[in-house]
Design brief:
The complex is a heterodimer of chains A (about 150) and B (about 180).
Chain A: H1 3-20, H2 30-40, H3 46-58, H4 78-105, H5 110-125, H6 131-148
Helix pairs in contact in A: 2-4
Chain B: H1 9-22, H2 28-39, H3 45-57, H4 62-105, H5 109-137, H6 141-156, H7 161-178, H8 180-184
Classes of the chains: A mainly alpha (about 150), B mainly alpha (about 180).
């Protein structure tokens, strides 16, 4: 079997089962995708993974979570609400673990951690803030630091 | 509200294409609500919420699942297919183009610096999403312990996700069942 076919097959075998367990949507898979791509299969380096994560999050696309104002408005049947309340803590844990995984892999180190903490606080306390502005802001600040030689 | 027969497949494609390329930061369901429920009035608030609830329970991306249901509701199987193609084609083209540009430029100090900044913002968005979910859905000790266990097993210990989820999900559902306070809330 040619190497390329083998790689494509491996990609499908790794990702298909994951999507079946993606409680909370794509963001919940982040930690596992990082683990498989960087550590297990060496499909990307740490630097490439961090960069591709940035690119794919900044690009538009169908994401996963309901916006905050829509959460909790739906009252379903009892089993429905029990299953959903049972899965929500796991979904939350998977998403937070994804954030931890990308932070670990990012070659940016402590400066990226601090900026990530600031942007977390900003989104939590200013929910109307457009994510695109945040992405551009982060890119501009670090880009300027790079030009000035401090980054 | 317009009758669903009056919504043509091209209009459906166009609406979801627009939705796809506008969905920055991943909150597709939120954008979908604004675009399809509030602006175009194609489905009612109630239909949207029950669809969103189901879309979160079945596996896969919640935004894509919701799109399938809305498309199906408006124009049947063809509607579901057209809506999903509309939703995915724009973002797929954009992210592929950006990935090609990235590999072409290659290793460049300034590019890495800019992307570090974007990554920091995106990590923040990820954490905020997880924390918001916690705030809305898991406010008592049992669910918080489950969330903590998930973060430790997968984020810190790097255990494989599938067995961890398969072990924790039944436990967590039992906790939810026993959590009377939450059930009555």
């Amino acid at each position: 079997m040619p190497d390329e076919v083998r790689t494509l097959l491996a990609l499908a075998l790794v990702f298909a089962p994951l999507s079946l367990l993606s409680i909370g949507g794509g963001a919940a898979l982040l930690a596992e995708i990082e683990h498989q791509s960087v550590s297990v299969h060496a499909w990307t380096t740490q630097r490439e993974f961090a960069d591709l994560f940035a690119i794919s999050r900044a690009a538009p696309g169908p994401g996963t979570m309901l916006s905050a104002r829509l959460w909790g408005r739906w009252r379903g049947s009892l089993w429905h609400s029990v299953v959903e309340r049972g899965l929500a803590p796991i979904a939350s844990g998977l998403i937070l673990a994804g954030g931890v995984a990308v932070m670990r892999v990012s070659p940016g180190g402590p400066a990226v951690w601090v900026a990530a903490a600031l942007s977390t606080a900003l989104i939590l306390f200013r929910p109307s803030f457009h994510p695109l502005v945040l992405f551009i802001g982060g890119g501009v600040v670090f880009g300027l630091a790079g030009i000035l030689g401090v980054w | 509200m317009p009758r669903s027969e009056t919504i043509g497949l091209p209009a459906l494609f166009a609406a979801f294409f627009r939705l796809g390329v506008m969905s920055f930061g991943g909150g597709t369901a939120g954008w979908l609500h604004r675009e399809i429920v509030e602006r175009r009035c194609w489905i009612s608030d109630r239909e949207f919420l029950s669809g969103a609830a189901l879309g979160r329970l079945v596996p896969g991306s919640g935004g894509v699942n919701l799109t399938v249901q809305v498309g199906q509701h408006l124009r049947g199987g063809a509607g579901a297919l057209v809506a999903v193609l509309g939703l995915l084609s724009g973002p797929l083209a954009i992210v592929l183009a950006l990935a090609v540009v990235y590999t072409t430029i290659g290793q460049n100090h300034l590019l890495h610096a800019v992307l570090d900044g974007v990554a920091a913002a995106a990590i923040g968005l990820t954490f905020a999403t997880g924390l918001k979910l916690l705030q809305f859905k898991a406010r008592s000790a049992g669910p918080l312990a489950i969330t903590f266990a998930t973060v430790v097993c997968i984020g810190v210990l790097r255990w494989p996700m599938i067995p961890v989820v398969l072990c924790l999900a039944p436990v967590s559902i039992c906790v939810a069942l026993l959590d009377r306070r939450g059930a009555n809330a």
